[in-house]
User: What shape does this take?
Amino acid sequence: MDQEKKETYDAAMLSLLLTSLPWLVHVADRLFALGLQAYGLRPLEGQGLGGIWTLPFLHEGVDHLISNTPSLFLLIFGLFLFYRKTGWAILFSLYFVSGLLTWFMGRPGSVHIGASGLSYALAAFHFTSGIIKKVPRQMAFALLVAFLYGGFVWAFFPTLYRDTDISWEGHLSGLMTGILFAFYFRRSGPAPPVYPALEEEEDADSDEDAWWRLPEKESGES
Assistant: This one.
């Protein structure tokens, strides 16, 4: 297996492992009647801060899990494919800060569960990184994210979810977090391509013996 295929395989396996964790938690919750949803994120409550860590692992039901799993798998896969050295640091940053912002922004008395906030953070991170870094592979992945999840922009308007249990605060927190860390980690991951033509021009400009330079006059000439 060549290096590129190995890196792709490793990223896919790691993403599969991470996206299976909410399913394992859900199965354990149902089998043993643990009532884990009570440990979700509770905004502006001291005891609810622990929900920052449990938030992405808790879901309302199988339908909720199915709606979050494909996007989470693809976005985590892309993260570890492009950011092999800093992928864990980026994921932790998106995970923690998006949860913390949701804790600050959420409605008092509400309970937030689900991985959609983290998915939005990853999507915003990939899209913004593709724009600012101009790496062809990342730009292509950003376009794929925009094509598949372009409708997520509607998830930031509270009036659309006034009578629902959907956490627009988590979505908005994820968006802001993803954009923030796309700029913070802009020097991580693959570097933009360097085009040979530009290198040759720079080399020519710095060459003291370039043909177009005029010879210096010898001393004594007027």
